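Data deposition worksheet. Section B asks for the primary sequence of the deposited chain exactly as it was used as input, without tags or linkers unless they were present during the calculation. Section C holds the resulting structure in token form. Section D is free text for depositor observations; keep each observation to a single sentence. Incomplete worksheets are returned to the depositor.
Section A, Depositor: J.P.
Section B:
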Amino acid sequence: MYLLANDAWLNTALPEPSMITKLKNGYNLIGYAINGFMGTEKNKRYARDVILKIKKALEAEGAEDVKIYPFFPDQRTILNKNTIINPYIYDLDELNIPVKKKFYSKRADLITKLGQYCNTVKETEDYLFDAIRFTIYDFVKFNSKDALTLDYVNLIAIEKYRQLGSKKGESTARAKAKAIYRWVIKNYNPGSGSGKWNWNYVRKTKNNKELKMVRAENAKKQAEKKYKNMHAKIVNLVTGLMSYEYKKKDGTIKISKVARDLGISRTTVYKHLKDANLI
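Section C:
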């Protein structure tokens, strides 16, 4: 029999107890009736191992103060009105269940400790991101992708957020976790080397100068793309099948009509036509 502070056995691979008693102090007493002879030294050792595995399984699910009480049919026990007796008698093999090992990510723990010494919000956010992602990587290595859920990822995010003291709030931590979760489910393969820890890896945060350079580069690319699209529209308009509508009798192009039909200025039309050597 096992004395538990909660119903932890419900989340394990343990079968239905042969006896369940709800005690007044909030504890539950569950018992398993076992069939078989336990007289030999070998059988005693095997039974002892199974009993300890059941205890470990209960503790892994958060059971508090799990105590074992041997019980034999010739003993008497006081059963209260909250006792449920089930007609289940188990062989030892049926109770020899797999026990989940407690998951622990050493590298994520190290990143979390280092992140507590950050001086800026940006640095803290970077360490928070890495602490979440390496915890998830190691969880998948330990348990496989099938065991990973968005709810569990959110719990990881909140735990790391509280440890690192991030100032951007829980919603930001959850957003990071959601993005990492989607990437892991789609791309992460523990056997391919993705996600391996690189001790030389340092996550870099861009300063204001670098951010301005990036924005300027992006603006330049967008301007070039916009220019190419407009250039193609104007050239196609004045050289295509309907080009006669945009030319005067002397062969010159009606800049005002092109500008009006495309909704742009005459200056823009003139510039593109000049660049295309059409005027």
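Section D:
The chain is about 50% helix and 5% strand.
Residues 205 and 211 are 10 Å apart (CA to CA).
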